[in-house]
Amino acid sequence: MEKKHVRRLQEKFSGALAGKKLICLHIPDEYEYMNDELIGLLQSSVGEYIEL
Predict the structure, then answer these.
(1) 48/28 Cα distance (integer angstroms)
(2) Confidence of residue 11 (pLDDT cuts 50, 70, 90)
(3) Which of 8, 9, 15, 34 has a C-alpha 20 to 30 A away from that of 22?
């Protein structure tokens, strides 16, 4: 998700997101589905927020 995606989500779902934390991993939206590099980026980025 990029910053522009965060803005779109906040605009469209502001009520549902009120009081909730929305985390942007700053990973560009340029990867194909299940791309190995993307999977590695996601695994290394989300570890700070969830237990894998």
Answers:
(1) 19
(2) very high
(3) 34
Say how far apart CA 20 and CA 37 lie, in whole Å. 29
Q: What is the per-residue pLDDT across 17-34, written as a single tens digit (0 to 9) for each?
A: 999 999 999 999 899 999
Q: Which two tokens stand for residue 29?
A: 């939206």
Total residues found in the chain within this entry: 52
Name the residue among 36, 27, 35 with its Cα closest to residue 1: 27
- Distance CA(23)–CA(48), nearest Å, equals 11
pTM of the model: 0.64
d(CA 22, CA 24): 7
